[in-house]
């Protein structure tokens, strides 16, 4: 069982931002810290934390916090 | 002939704004901005939007001397640059106001900041200023002339298969010498140029690629790492004709992967070498030799020559694209002295077929995510931010920057966070290590080579 908080912590760590900056409307390039470099880092962190392999098409799809959750759902990961 | 005149002679040229899908031709953009007819300095924090390209073209058609910079620079660094150079115009859509400057509407859509009191004494040959370190905000610029820009572009057009049917994305920043040369070469000899701030990890980039049929893609090493990560080579790109790579040494495994992928589809892969001090380009690898000459930077561009210094093995370059000196303050803009020889700072060798290879580096910098980071400048930043602490910075394989320090009370994470904020680079680019004491040279300076050797031995011992 994973929590939303865990996901937020992964985001904060991968994008190197304070946890309170991880908001529901966060999206790619909406903050300078979420750029192409940190995006690849984020994908790697998500794969490690949830023990999944993210499909290459999904890497491009995961352009917001909401869309990341959608992808996790495809891997049967529901956050509580 | 001026760069702008060469561009204006290209009848096939059109620019597309990916955001709206609108296209325009050069005559639509000519004199679209009301700019001064004097030779003054303009600091442009440019992205790759159609507005920025319109501004750039208008500036190329004017007598302005322009400095191209990243809009993402830290505001404090922008202010330092502006204090050092006192430009007449500033273009920066990220700021609402700038002290001592008045907003100036250059057109209905493009606003600048202007200070008419600021008058610079600028050498007539000085057209362009480019920063070598994109991120430390150093006020050090490379001085380039109109002739440098033209010669660099023509030497690239000489070997790249650019033609009027091309559809070229501006996927590298135009404030960066490589990205700027994609813009200049394709404006002179290409067809359609797609202006957008979209990069290869965005779905929109690939949608544009399909919609417009991109015929080339340019990338620094980390772009190729991302392309590999997103499974680029598992798909087909019928319109793609060639790809280029510059901005640092690409991992040999990736050279092979992309080289083979493209060769198998009768497409070409150009691995290239250059420096901002040479406007951009010094050498290129003929695609047919790429897989036979692993690690080579190839052959000099047309009108360029390499030679290797007999005593140091430093790679020296001469050619009409070599810059006219550095600028550190506004006073340096008054001179432009083309250097007879460019000292690349890279150590090189040449094989029996005449191909060149970089074997080491003499200068104190590391390339991180495509950006050149000056190690001495990073030490200065750390010293300032820690009220006089002592640091030694070492670049490692262009993978990360290692900070050594003697302060037991400093947290690694805090240092990485600080550098990440100051340099706008991901913290994973920085490693921190506390040491008992630095190794010093006989005259009391940090002995980087010895410290690197020590770390290397330690790594072997613990492996």
UniProtKB/TrEMBL annotation, chain A:
InterPro entries the record matches: ACP-like_sf, PP-bd_ACP
Chain ranges of the Carrier domain: 5-70
Source organism superkingdom: Bacteria
Protein name: Acyl carrier protein
Species whose genome carries this gene: Chitinophaga agrisoli
Taxonomic path: Bacteria, Pseudomonadati, Bacteroidota, Chitinophagia, Chitinophagales
TrEMBL record, chain B:
Pfam families: AMP-binding
Chain segments annotated as transmembrane: none
GO biological process: fatty acid metabolic process
Descriptive protein name: AMP-binding protein
GO molecular function: medium-chain fatty acid-CoA ligase activity
InterPro entries documented for this protein: AMP-bd_C_sf, AMP-dep_synth/lig_dom, ANL_N_sf
Domain AMP-dependent synthetase/ligase: 42-326
PANTHER family reported in the protein's UniProt record: 2-SUCCINYLBENZOATE--COA LIGASE, CHLOROPLASTIC_PEROXISOMAL (PTHR43201:SF32), ACYL-COA SYNTHETASE (PTHR43201)
């Amino acid at each position: 069982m994973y929590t939303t908080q865990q996901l937020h912590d992964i985001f904060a760590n991968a994008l190197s931002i304070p946890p309170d900056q991880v908001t529901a409307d966060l999206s790619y390039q909406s903050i300078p810290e979420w750029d192409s470099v940190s995006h690849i880092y984020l994908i790697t962190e998500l794969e490690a934390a949830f023990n999944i392999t993210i499909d290459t098409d999904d890497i491009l799809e995961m352009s917001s916090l909401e869309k990341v959750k959608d992808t996790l759902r495809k891997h049967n990961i529901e956050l509580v | 002939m001026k760069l702008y005149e060469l561009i204006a002679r290209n009848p096939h040229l059109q620019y597309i704004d990916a955001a709206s899908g609108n296209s325009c031709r050069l005559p639509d953009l000519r004199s679209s901005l009301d700019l001064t007819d004097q030779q003054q300095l303009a600091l442009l924090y440019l992205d790759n939007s159609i507005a920025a390209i319109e501004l750039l073209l208008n500036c190329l058609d004017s007598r302005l001397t322009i400095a191209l910079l990243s809009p993402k620079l830290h505001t404090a660094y922008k202010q330092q640059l502006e204090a050092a150079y006192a430009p007449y115009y500033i273009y920066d859509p990220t700021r609402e106001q700038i002290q001592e400057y008045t907003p100036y509407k250059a057109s209905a859509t493009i606003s600048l900041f202007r200070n008419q009191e600021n008058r610079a004494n600028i050498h007539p040959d000085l057209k362009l200023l480019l920063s070598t370190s994109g991120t430390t905000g150093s006020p050090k610029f490379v001085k380039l002339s109109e002739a440098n820009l033209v010669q660099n572009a023509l030497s690239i057009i000489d070997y790249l298969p650019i033609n009027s049917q091309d559809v070229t994305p501006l996927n590298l920043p135009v404030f960066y010498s490589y990205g700027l040369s994609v813009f200049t070469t394709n404006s002179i000899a290409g067809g359609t140029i797609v202006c957008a701030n979209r990069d290869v990890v965005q779905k929109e980039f690939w949608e544009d690629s399909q919609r417009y049929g991109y015929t080339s893609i340019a990338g620094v090493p980390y772009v190729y790492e991302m392309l590999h990560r997103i499974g680029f080579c598992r798909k087909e790109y019928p319109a793609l004709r060639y790809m280029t790579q510059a901005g640092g040494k690409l991992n040999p495994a990736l050279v092979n992967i992309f080289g083979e992928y493209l060769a198998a589809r009768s497409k070409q892969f150009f691995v290239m070498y250059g420096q901002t001090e040479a406007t951009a380009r010094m050498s290129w690898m003929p695609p047919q030799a790429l897989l036979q000459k692993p690690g080579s930077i190839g052959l000099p561009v047309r009108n360029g020559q390499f030679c290797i210094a007999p005593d140091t093995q430093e790679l020296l370059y001469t050619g009409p694209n070599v810059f006219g000196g550095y600028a550190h303050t506004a006073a340096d803009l008054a001179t432009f002295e083309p250097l007879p020889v460019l000292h690349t700072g890279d150590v090189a060798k040449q094989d029996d077929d005449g191909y060149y290879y970089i074997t080491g580096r003499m200068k104190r910098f590391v390339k991180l995510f495509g950006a050149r980071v000056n190690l001495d400048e990073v030490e200065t930043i750390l010293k300032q931010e820690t009220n006089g602490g002592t640091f030694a910075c070492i670049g490692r394989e262009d993978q990360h920057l290692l900070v050594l320090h003697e302060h037991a009370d400093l947290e690694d994470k805090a240092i990485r966070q600080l550098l990440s904020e100051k340099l706008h680079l991901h913290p994973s680019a920085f490693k921190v290590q506390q040491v008992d004491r630095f190794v010093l040279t006989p005259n009391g300076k940090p002995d980087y080579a010895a410290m690197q050797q020590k770390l290397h031995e330690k790594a072997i011992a613990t492996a």
